Amino acid sequence: MGQLLAIEIVYRGIFQRKLAQNISRTIVLAAHKEGKPGISFGRYSDSPERNGIPAKNFAIVGSDDLTLEEGMAKYEPKEVDVTICVDDTLCKGVESWAWYGLQPINKLLKPNGTLIVTSHQSADHLIAMAHRKETPYNLCIVKGTPSFSGLWVFKDDHTDVRILGTIARVLPGLVSLKSVQQAIQDEWHDAVKAQSAAKAYERASSVTVKPNQGNPEVPYKFELPKWHEMGEGVAIPAIPQGHAMTDPATHKTGGLKPDRNPTFKKFSTRSYRPVVDFDTCIKCTLCWLQCPDTCFDVPPAGLYAANLEACCGCGVCEAVCPAPKCVTMVNEVEFKDNASQWEAWRKDKNGYKTWLKEKIATKPAERQHGFRYRGQYDKETPEMLAIAKEG
Amino acid sequence: MAQMAPVLEERKETGKTALITGSEAIAVACKLADVDVITAYPIRPYDTVMQYISRLVSNGEMDCEYIVAEGEHSQFEIVKHASVVGARVFCGSSGVGWMYAMEALTVTPALRVPMVAMVGNRALDDPGAFGVEHNDALAVRDLGWLLVWVDSAQECLDTALIAYRVAEDPRILLPCAISCDGAFLTHSQALVKIPSQEQVTAFLPPYNRGKLLLHPDNPITVAPQGNEDWVMEIRRQNYAASERAAGVIREAYADLEKKLGRSYGNPFFEEYMTEDADVVLMGMGTLSTPVKVAIREMRKEGKKVGFVRLRWFRPFVAEEITKCLSRFKAVGVVDRDYSMGSPYMSGVVTTEVRSALYSANVKNKPPVLGFICRLGGREVTVHDVRRITESVYAAAEGKSQPLTQWIGLRE
What we know:
CATH topology of the largest domain in chain B: Rossmann fold
Number of domains of chain B: 2
Mean pLDDT of chain B: 95
Strand content of chain A: 15-25%
Number of helices of chain B: 13
Low-confidence stretches of chain B: 1-13
Distance between the termini of chain A: 40 Å
Structural class of chain A: alpha/beta
Strand order of the largest sheet of chain B: 3-2-4-5-7-6-12
Helix content of chain B: 25-40%
Number of helices of chain A: 11
Strand content of chain B: 15-25%
Number of strands of chain B: 15
Oligomer: heterodimer
Largest interface: A-B, 27 and 28 residues
CATH architecture of the largest domain in chain A: 3-Layer(aba) Sandwich
Order of helices and strands of chain A: EHEEHEEHEHHHEEEEHEEHEHHH
Largest sheet of chain A: 7 strands, mixed
CATH topology of the largest domain in chain A: Pyruvate-ferredoxin Oxidoreductase, domain 3
Shape of chain B: globular
CATH class of the largest domain in chain B: Alpha Beta
Low-confidence stretches of chain A: none
Structural class of chain B: alpha/beta
Number of strands of chain A: 13
C-alpha cells in the first residue's frame, strides 16, 4: 500500500466556507502537480451551513489511485495528518450539525500530527483552550486575525495561501512549496499570493503539545438509541418549559430558566459572547425577546442573563440593546468557561464590575463576521496583507 | 437569442483536467452538449448542479434559457414542453422534490420526451434527511424512464453525454435520469478529464424530433385525450422503445470510446475481480468504493470475492445479468433502498435480480441474498462488506441464511 495523507479544515459555516474550500481544493491541485491523486470535499451533514456553526472540509491525497480509493472508502477520515483551524475560538471544541456531542479540535489528529491555527493568541493560550489528547501533537500558529467573510463575498486577505505555505512546511510529504505556488498561480494568477505562501513557509514554526497539556474536561457525549428503543412516527420528546431560578445572594426563587436541549448545546458556534452590565440594564426585555436562540434566562429580579451554554454569539442582543454599554460582544478567546455572569454579579458586584471592565476593554472596533458595507474588506485586508508580508 | 453576458472567468475546464464534483461534471457536460433549456428548483443535493450551471451562464460560458421554476412540478413541465418544440433540455431534482414532480415525470415517457435529468439521490422525507437512498429515482422505474447509476465524477460527465445520445436517438425518444449518490458524488471534488468541444460535437448529433416536432410548419397535436381504444397500443409503443434502448446504449458506449477515448467495458454493469470469483456482491452507485477496497483485502486472505456494479437499472438487461451471475455460487445484492412489503421484504434491486434469475435460461441459479445497507446516507464500511460476504459464502456452502438482512442498523 502507498501513502495516504488526510487534511481537515475546521471552519465557521458560511463565514469561512470559501476560505476552507480554497485551502482544500488547492491542496489537491498542488498534489496533482506532483502526480498524486486526491479529492476535496465538505462534510455533507454540516450543510445547510448556518452562520458560525462549525463545519469541516477534507482533502485526501494518495500516492496512487488505489491508495486514494482506500481513503475514499470512508465517509470522512478517521484520523488526519494536519488539522487546520481557521478560527482560534474553535480550539475550545466543535459541535456541528454532523454529529452529537462536543468534539475536541485535535480529536482526529494522528500522533505527532500538526494543528495549524490562525490566531493572534500565544501558543500557551491556545493549548489551554484545546482539550487534552492522549498522544502528543504539534501546534503551528499562522499569525493573524481569523478571516471571516460572507456567503456571497470573499475577503482575499491571503489567509488561504499562508496556510497552504504552512502545510508545505509542516507536511513536506504531501506537497512541496513549489507545487503549492504553482497551484496558486494557476488558480489566481497572482504572484503576490504565491509570495505570501512562501513567506508563511519560511516563518512556520511549531511547538509540541504534550499529553498532560490542555483543557482536562471530558467533552460531553451522547449515545444514539437503538431502533427499537426509539419512539415511532418520527416523533420525539420536546424540551420541557423550564423552572424557577435561585438567587445565590438572597436564596429567593423566581423568574424562569427555560430547559434546553441537553444533547445539543450550540455554544461552540460562538466566536464572540455577550458580556452584560447588569447595573446599566433597564429591563426593557429586548435582548430576551429578540434572541433567535431563546438563550436568555430570566432571574428573579427581572434581569436578563445570557445562558452561555445556549448562546450562539450572533450579537443580536448587543444590536437591539438601547442602554449604552449594557451588552458588549467580546471575543470568545477571552473566556475559559460558560459560567453564569448573573450569578457572579449577584455574589460579588464589585468583583464583577472589575472583571467586566477588563473584558470589554478588549472589544474590537468592528466584528469580522459577514459583510455589511462596500469598502469594509478594503479596510480590513491591509492589516492582514501587512502581516503576510512582514510577519 | 438574447445577448450573452461577458466572459468573467476564462474557460477553465475544456480540454484539460479539472477538480470538480460529480454535479459540476454534469453541468460541464450540459455546456458541452449545448443544452438549450434548463429548469431548476433548489433541493439538496441536486442543487449543486443548478448552482454550477447558473455560474456558467452568468459568466457567459454557456448559452441557454435558464429558468428557475416555482416548484419541481413546473420545473419538469417546462422542459417537457421545450423538448417538444425541439430544445435539448436538462433538469433534475432529489428526494421528495422528485416526488413532487411525479405527475410531470409520468407523462414524459409517454410523450416521448428525451429529457435528461440528474437525480441527486436523497432519502425520502420523513424525517427531513438528505443522505443517499435510491428510492427517489427508483420510484419511476415502471414508467419508461431510462435509469442509470454512476460512481465517479468522471462517469457523471461521460454518462450525461451518453444520456443525451441515447434519449434523443429517434429509435428511443425516452427520458433518462442519471442517479448520483448525494454527498459522495454531488459534494466531493475529484479530478475529471474534460473532453474537447470538438470531441463532444462529433459524438453527439443535434437533437431532431422529426415528425414529432411541435411547430407551425409541422402541425400536430401532442397529448390529446384517449380512451380505452387507444391506451394499450400507446403503452406497447413505449415497450418497444424501451426494448430498443439496450442496443442503442451499446452503440453509444462504443462510439464514446471511439470519439472520446474512454472505455467503460460492458455498458450495463461493471465486473470487478469476477473472473475466478466464488461469490459476488452486487449493487449500484458509490458503494462500489468500500466494496472494492474490502474485496482487495479479502482477496489477500484467499477469499475469491467479486463485485458486479449495476449501471443501467432501466433497461434491466436480464439475460446478460443472469448469464453473468450464473457463474457464481451465491450472490449478495446490496440495496441502498427499501421496498416495504415486497417479496421476502427485500430491497428493489434484490427483488429484480431474483425475478430475473427465476426465469433465466441458465444452468446455475445461485441463491440471492438481499442486504438493506446503510440507508439515509450512512457510510457503507469495509467491515459491512466483510460481514455481508461471510453470509454470502455461507449461502454458497448451502447453509441457510436470511433472505433479507439489515446492515449498519443500531440493533
